Amino acid sequence: MSVVEAAKPDGWEEYGERQETRVGFFTDTSICIGCKACEVACKEWNLVPEDGREWTGQSYDNTGQLDANTWRHVAFIEQEKPLRVDDGAEGLRWLMSSDVCKHCTHAACLDVCPTGALFRTEFGTVVVQEDVCNGCGYCVPACPFGVLDKRELPASPPESLDLLDGLGKKEDGRVWKCTLCYDRLKGGHEPACAMACPTKSIQFGPLDELRARADQRLAKLEAEGWNGAQLYGRDPDDGVGGFGAFFLLLDEPEVYGLPPDPVVTTRDLGQIWGHVAVAAGVVVGAVLAAFAGGSR
Amino acid sequence: MSSYYGRPVIKEPVWTWEIPAYFFTGGLGGASAVLSLAARVGGNEALAKTSMYVGAAADLASPPLLISDLGRPERFLNMFRVFKVTSPMSVGSWILGVSGGASATAALLELTGRLKLVKYAAEVVSALSGGPLATYTGGLVADTAVPAWHDARRELPYVFGASAAASAGAASALFLPPRDAGPARRLAICGALAELGAVQAMERRLGPLVGEPYKQGEAGKLTKASKLCVAAGAGLLAARGRKSRTAAVAGSTLLLAGEVALRIAVWKAGRQSARDPRYTVIPQRERREPRARPAHVRP
Fold it and tell me: CA-based, 20 to 30 A from B10: which of A139, A204, B192, B284?
């Protein structure tokens, strides 16, 4: 199995000598047991606030989705499908998958961020600087996976006397997402979710190695006849240049709430700027034309 | 189509009402600056002054709208930390800063009657940046993963630009006696027709599925109301706007209301488009290379 060179993430080159190996996650959902240890470990380590306890009635998923206060989300899917292709027509299976920020090679959130709060780290990951983000919200609809969201919880206890409360809103108001435990990486440690995962469904490491390992794993599952096994986000030629955090799924991505063919919106930015410029010219032209019939 | 409990795949835009309001004021300010300078050069002083004041007022209303939408309004200056061409919001902040600053300066000097040369320079700067100010917001919303916006990227800058031109013409025609408002009236009518055409082209390109939000729910109602108001306003201006001040005021008001409704409709359509996973998943599923089902997959 050849080790494929990871596509170069935008902005990573600028680190020069300080550039580290690009790291990421390979989430092998075929061995996920749905324990949610990743969700808990992430919240604990990153001090992500509690955001309501709600019974959804959607299998064992009472988390719902990735958002500002959920950086790992375990999906649960109950299906009437055979687990293996030779299991006969009858079958019932329970799919689980721990979703996370994809740390895209071409990241839309990073491109559209107007303040530079979102940046590419030396590890090739994408992180929001909480002291720079002003909560403009542009990254939220730009992400093709719906990962980023604005935190609306109180920024500080209500009894605190914050002079800025009068000027701003009382909520946190900033955008938050998975940092791939940037602080832990800096200290040479594995991210909290991968560390806590009891089955090694979440694997952390250099992206090249993870991709090679994923290829081997897929070949094994295919040989064993696992129904629907496929890699998602492993291909550096996809619409976002490959994910820094990719997956082995047992059904189509949309079954897990993931987009089947995500594309970084800024791929079309040249075309968009072109039309903006021509349209601006048309506005000027229209005004001039309005004076063609006289200036009164 | 399968989905995860019908949950959205992408996040709904978190922008509140201030953002469509700014799409309107920014467009009005940008196109008014162009109209004002053209009137100045053409020798229509009444129109030049009126559109200058309208534009400056719209430009001055814009930053408070944008700042109040921020999650951290006290950090609004972070918009000017960097200049990023990959971010239409970054480029747009600079355009608004330059154009709004110039038009406010020009209006102030016009009011006080001082520093003629500086005033002319400010007018030129605000007119040059007025066009981009009127159209970049269309590119801004198109540069997202929201299907009803991204797939309309070839039309939205024209929709927004035409809407801005119509608004600028209508706003000046609202405040001026009909004999001074000729070019403003013509701009309002042309802009309105162009906007209706561009919206039509956009809906045709989006097709029945991705274009659905512009036809359903609140966005659908607003789109329809906008078309009616814009058509009625432009019609009234064209038929009676030259003779009757009352008709000019009524036509301009209708047209402006229609353009405000359009901006709100586009914003709401984006939210509706993000909320339903069908709009994201079905087109992506269709464009993904049709693969032969591998032997190891059973439905």
Answer: A204
Residue range A85-94, pLDDT digits in tens: 887 777 889 9
Could you give the number of structural domains in chain A? 2
- B149: closest CA among B6, B38, B271, B276? B271
| Phi, psi for residue B280 in degrees, rounded to 5 | -85, -45
> What is the domain-level CATH number for residue A60?
3.30.70.20
Q: Is the dihedral of CA B69, B70, B72, B75 positive or negative?
A: negative
Check whether residue A146 and residue A218 sit in a common domain: yes
User: Min CA distance, B237 vs chain A (Å)?
Assistant: 14
Report yes or no: A28 and A250 within 8 Å, Cβ to Cβ. no
Residue of B nearest to A116 (CA): B82
Rounded CA gap, B223 and B209, in Å?
Answer: 16
Whether B256 maps to a domain, the answer reads yes
On chain B, the residues whose CB falls within 8 A of the CB of A280 are 131-132, 134-136, 157, 161
- The H-assigned helical ranges of chain A are 37-46, 108-112, 139-142, 182-186, 192-196, 207-224, 269-290
Closest of B194, B254, B198 to residue B228, by C-alpha: B254
In a domain, A157, yes or no: yes
User: CA Rg, chain A, in Å?
Assistant: 22
In a domain, A218, yes or no: yes
With a CB cutoff of 8 Å and minimum separation 6, the contacts of B207 are none
Q: Please indicate if any CB of chain B lies within 8 Å of the CB of A123.
A: no
Residues 6+ apart with CB under 8 A from B279: B147, B148, B209, B210, B212, B213, B273
The pTM assigned to this predicted structure is: 0.93
Q: What is the pLDDT of residues A166-181, one digit of tens each?
A: 444 457 899 999 999 9
Q: Please, are residues A15 and A237 in contact by the beta-carbon 8 Å criterion?
A: no
User: Can you give the residue range of the structural domain that contains A105?
Assistant: 13-263
> What pLDDT, on the 0 to 100 scale, is given for residue B295?
56
**CATH code of the domain containing B125:** 1.20.1630.10
Same domain assignment for residues A151 and A212: yes
Domain that holds residue B165: 18-284
